[in-house]
Specification:
alpha/beta; 7-stranded mixed beta sheet; 14 strands; binds zinc ion
Length: 225
């Protein structure tokens, strides 16, 4: 079984056979999330940056399951101080697992932990699940690096924030999708709060006008990888 499930906001679950990889698990306090991690065998938790709507429940889930948090070193150190298992990585770094690999890439965004300390650079993450590539942009603004990522890695799925205010908006995310050469675009980080409202139909129209597919997922909807 290979599946990508949208939990809500920027949180996703990748399942590959017996492994489940949680990304940016903002569940408690997330008005759109209805997800019980205890029903899954969580093997790894990947966090793009330290803001609470991304770090979310990562530390508690790590402590309860033993799954390590994979994050940029400064954020990993913070999580370790809270008692979580961690793997510290940095931008450009790649890790291989029995379910595939992940690589941390750039994002233009800030990152401070709940103690308002510097959380290291914010990251985006490229997953390779048995040849299916999934790019999670984190909370980035539009960056020229997307052209390089598109040329080098040609991600199949691109998970892009569209809510504006903290991240790209629908116009910038449509440009990012084009630069990434992705086949299918899944919007995220919108409508959770009042200041990140986005017109997802308008985004879908823009993506389709570029000849790409747009898959706005509702929480707990998934795609088979
Ligand atoms: Zn953020």
């Amino acid at each position: 079984m290979r599946r990508l499930t949208y939990i809500g906001h920027s949180a996703f679950l990748i399942e590959k056979d017996w492994d489940s990889i949680l990304i940016d698990p903002f569940i408690t306090g997330n008005p759109s999330a209805d997800f019980d991690y205890k029903k899954k065998r969580i093997s790894h938790i990947v966090v793009t940056h330290a803001h609470l709507d991304h770090l979310g429940d990562a530390i508690a889930i790590s402590k309860n399951t033993g799954a390590p948090i994979i994050a940029v070193v400064e954020l990993a150190q913070y999580c370790a101080r809270q008692g979580a298992r961690t793997i510290g990585l940095n931008i450009g770094g790649c890790l291989k697992f029995n379910w595939g690999s992940l690589r941390f890439l750039g994002a233009n965004h800030s990152s401070s932990n709940p103690d308002i300390e510097y959380g290291g650079p914010a990251a985006s993450v490229l997953f390779d699940i048995d040849g299916t590539t999934i790019f999670h942009a984190g909370d980035s603004g539009l960056i020229s690096e997307y052209s390089i990522i598109g040329e080098m890695y040609n991600p199949y799925y691109a998970l892009l924030p569209i809510g504006g205010y903290y991240t790209m908006d629908i116009n910038e995310a449509a440009m990012a999708a084009k630069m990434l050469y992705a086949m299918e675009i899944i919007p995220m980080h919108y409508n959770t709060f009042n200041n990140i409202k986005a017109d997802v139909q308008s985004f879908k129209d823009k993506i389709e006008a570029q000849g790409q597919k747009c898959l706005p997922l509702k929480p707990n909807e998934y795609v088979e990888l």
